[in-house]
Design a protein that fits this description.
Biased composition (Acidic residues): 24-43
Oligomer: single chain
Strand content: 5-15%
Domain PiggyBac transposable element-derived protein: 120-464
Keywords: Membrane, Transmembrane, Transmembrane helix
Shape: globular
Helix content: 25-40%
InterPro entries: PGBD
Number of helices: 19
Region (Disordered): 1-81
Number of strands: 12
């Protein structure tokens, strides 16, 4: 009998030579799945694993979805819900030509409206914040003021419109705090003349969207239940607008550093690393078509049952549920989301996908190493085609190597997929850039109100982008189209005094 084998480190289990042979010959070995480092079943559920020496684009994407302490729920959710012992699907990668599919859009062509007309900025704003939404706020604000103070604040739709208008003005002329707009030394008339500072602060403290006393325990499982009626109504309004063919899916962070709110996240590398995480689907202009607020592990929007595509894949599928099937939408996303099972899922719905991919999610597609590719110089590339799904996996050498997967577009002589991805992926980033210019960073104790003011600003931007789309359809010169700040100012004026400024708007080719 040979001397027993002793493991090193913290594992002290001992085996005889015969036991080792028996384990190697057994079909149900405990070690088999762990030894296969390329197993797809493991790859899909490591969204925060480092890509090692992969490309700079992939590294930057990874940093946006860093597995920091506050962001752990994503990884925990994936590992808990992972389907155990799932057989890994085999994909056949070949170096051959790409069969370009027919991607002519079959949906509504928003660029070719023949009867498009422009309207006033306030009317565009009402497309996203309707009268019904304001009436709901008025009802529950008065109700909540009685519950909280024993006295009705007695507000009205007109007064709530004025509060919203004042907030939009504050975004255009920003001061360090709300009270400064009413201070004698720096008093700002367009805000202070509309409403007293005390009344504005009073309304801010009691604005409400639900009846707290009627909410059941089941309703309160949703961590956003106090804001849910407004969020659902705003999302429905966004979905009424016909989406463009190309949509990018990514995350945005709503700045919040307070200690309250169980859904606050931390993401290393973001301009605002602390805040609320919002998954959004945008076209290249930044128009928000659909969104979902991440509520952390155990939140109401957590996928029920076993996770089939990993956290990122399920997010993309959920965002695409609002898109019509079989009309050939083109989806762009980064390497947090990309995997072959996701691509197959979308293809079954007639949706084509392009995105950067992590090294551990390439489904055993073997490409030239980064070192060998870098020797060929910038612009060199290597690719493989998956036979069953006609999916291309491309590695292209820029400053560093960039790896992408796509089901709809590539030119083998010149990988235009890189240019297409860069041009179409930045929709959510564009929305955040618009928000940074005209959003007032209001401070308020009730953490969920931060999200309310955020989406109010998004409503203005969506209204402006819809107005721009109509102007483009009518062939109105760019010089005659309202800029965002001017547009937001006119929305604020309309909310404050219900005056459409006919003479002023006529100069900008806006029909009353």
């Amino acid at each position: 009998m040979a001397a027993p084998f002793s493991g090193q480190g913290k594992h002290q289990r001992k085996f005889t030579a015969q036991q080792v042979l028996d384990l190697l010959e057994a079909d149900d070995s405990d070690f088999g799945p762990e030894l296969d480092s390329d197993s797809d079943s493991d790859e899909l559920y490591q969204p925060h694993e480092s890509d090692g020496g992969e490309s700079s684009a992939e590294d930057s994407d990874s940093s946006n979805h860093s597995s920091s302490d506050e962001d752990v729920p994503f990884a925990e959710t994936a590992s808990v819900q992972m389907e155990p012992n799932r057989a890994a699907k085999t994909y056949k990668w070949r170096k051959k030509g790409f069969e370009l599919p027919d991607v002519n859009f079959l949906g509504e062509q928003v660029e070719s409206y023949q009867d498009a007309t422009t309207d006033t900025p306030l009317v565009y704003f009402w497309r996203f914040v309707s009268l019904d939404m304001l009436e709901n706020i008025v009802e529950h604000t008065n109700q909540y003021s009685i519950q909280k103070h024993g006295k009705c604040v007695d507000t009205s739709v007109k007064e709530i419109e004025q509060v919203l208008g004042l907030y939009l003005w504050m975004g255009l002329v920003q001061m360090s705090g709300v009270r400064q707009y009413w201070e004698n030394e720096v008093r700002y008339g367009p805000v202070a003349d509309i409403m007293s500072g005390n009344r504005f602060s009073q309304l801010l403290s009691v604005i409400h969207f639900v009846d707290n006393e009627m909410a059941s325990e089941e309703v309160k499982k949703d961590r956003l239940w106090k804001l849910r009626p407004f969020l659902d109504s705003f999302r429905r309004q966004c979905l009424t607008i016909a989406p463009r063919q190309k949509q990018s899916i990514d995350e945005m962070m709503v700045l919040y550093k307070g200690k309250f709110g169980g859904i606050r996240q931390y993401i290393k590398g973001k301009p605002h690393p602390w805040g609320f995480k919002v998954w959004g689907s945008c076209c290249v202009t930044g128009f928000l078509h659909d969104f979902d607020i991440y509520q952390g592990k155990g939140g109401a929007n957590e996928q029920k049952g076993k996770n089939q595509l990993g956290v990122g894949g399920d997010i993309v599928v959920k965002q695409c549920d609002s898109l019509a099937e079989k009309v050939r939408f083109l989806i762009f996303a980064d390497n947090f989301f990309t995997s072959m099972p996701l691509i197959e899922k979308l293809l079954a719905k007639g949706i084509y996908y392009t995105g950067t991919v992590r090294k551990n999610r390439m489904s055993k597609c073997t490409l030239m190493t980064n070192k060998d590719l870098s020797k060929k110089g910038r612009g060199s590339y290597d690719h493989r085609i998956e036979s069953n799904t006609n999916t291309v996996c491309l590695k292209w050498q820029d400053t560093k190597a960039v790896t992408l997967m796509s089901t709809y577009y590539i030119n083998i002589d010149q990988p235009n997929i890189i240019k297409e991805y860069n041009a179409s992926m930045g929709g959510v980033d564009m929305l955040e850039a618009h928000l940074a210019r005209c959003k007032f960073p209001i401070r308020i104790r009730r953490w969920y109100m931060i999200l309310f003011w955020h989406f109010l600003s998004v409503a203005v931007i969506n209204a402006w982008l819809l107005y721009q789309r109509d102007c483009e359809a009518q062939g109105i010169p760019t010089s005659k189209v309202l800029k965002l700040r001017k547009f937001q100012g006119l929305v604020a004026e309309g909310l404050l005094i219900k005056c459409f400024y006919v003479q002023r708007l006529t100069n900008y080719h806006i029909c009353i």
